[in-house]
Design goal:
Number of domains: 2
CATH class of the largest domain: Mainly Alpha
Order of helices and strands: EHEHEHEHEHHHHHHHHHHH
Oligomer: single chain
CATH architecture of the largest domain: Orthogonal Bundle
């Protein structure tokens, strides 16, 4: 359900617009002037802003300028709604970054359609931007790590397959496909001497390496979109262990996010089967023996059970997406 910020100094105008919006299924947050709208945006995430122009304290022009020059709010679609109908007023609002302009009194059908279209377009743009961001981060991580891009892609596909087996919605399965490859993005913050060391890490080095989970979470949790929040959750929890001996928070059992528990299994599975500068590829038999021996200690029992039920599909993913 999308949230709309409705900013208008006239109470009756807010009541009319709010009623229409709520009937269409939107959550509505009201503000009576630009100053109040700015404060609302500091505390709430919204997907559309409806902005009146002529208001006391701070008018819609100034509020629009502030919103559209702040990187935290600049991408939120903003529609100016005003009784002002001259070309200069419209042009000024659009020049300040407004995405559309609707004159009052507005046609209800047109109002509903424009609001819905603006929210839909905003979501599509945000999704595109987030996917592009994750692709850039993935490429950055590849330049620094021994892992290959096909490993991260396979982890995404395998994790999505398991998420579907757990009964996740189609939309959330797709989010898993996109988010899971970011599980080790925090390694961009690990010094080369530790990250690229060919031999076994000593105790101090391993403590440094372990911080990549928290670093990844910090990088990915800046925005509260479903995709980035899932990616952040996975980054933080995929090294937790079912018996509580993992890191960074020593979570145990069901307190570990299912997304992280899923990625923990498929990441280890794919890594063990893959050759790396510091290790030869393990056989399938040895790999599965290791995973099964760690049920209830490292791995979530139900995740491993579903993984084994879908092992043929997992192997098909490796065969299809393998060049390492």
């Amino acid at each position: 359900m999308a949230t709309v910020l409705l900013c208008d100094d006239e109470l009756m105008n807010r009541k009319v617009a709010s009623k229409i919006l709520k009937k269409e299924g939107f959550d509505v947050i009201e503000a009576k002037d630009g100053l109040e709208a700015i404060e609302v945006l500091k505390e709430h995430s919204v997907e559309l802003i409806l902005m009146d122009l002529m208001m006391p304290n701070m008018d819609g022009y100034e509020a629009t300028k502030i919103i559209k020059t702040d990187e935290r709010t600049a991408t939120i679609p903003l529609i100016i709604i005003s009784a002002l109908s001259d070309r200069a007023a419209i042009t000024k609002g659009l020049e300040l970054g407004a995405n559309e302009y609707i004159s009052k009194p507005f046609d209800i059908t047109e109002f509903r359609l424009r609001v819905k279209n603006s929210v839909d377009m905003g979501r599509l743009q945000n999704e595109k931007s987030e996917k592009e961001l994750l692709e850039i981060l993935a490429k950055t991580a590849e330049f620094r790590d021994n892992e290959t891009s096909t490993h991260t892609v396979r982890v995404g596909e395998m994790a999505a397959l398991l998420a579907k087996a757990f009964g996740w919605s189609e939309e959330r399965v797709e989010l898993m496909r996109l988010a899971a490859p970011m599980h080790d993005i925090g390694k961009v913050g690990i010094p080369d001497a530790v990250l690229l060391k060919r031999g076994k890490l000593d105790t101090e080095e391993f403590e440094i390496m372990k911080t990549h989970a928290s670093i990844g979470y910090t990088l990915l949790s800046e925005k509260r979109s479903p995709l980035l929040q899932l990616a952040a959750e996975i980054a933080l929890t995929h090294h937790e262990k079912y018996d509580g001996s993992g890191y960074p928070n020593a979570l145990a059992g069901e307190t570990i996010a299912l997304s992280g528990a899923i990625v923990a299994v498929v990441d280890v599975f794919d890594a063990l089967l893959s050759e790396r500068p510091y290790k030869k590829a393990f056989s399938l038999e040895k790999t599965l023996d290791i995973i099964n021996s760690d049920i209830g200690t490292h791995f979530h029992p139900e995740v491993v059970a579903l993984f084994m039920q879908n092992i043929e599909e997992m192997l098909e993913i490796r065969a299809k997406l393998s060049n390492d």
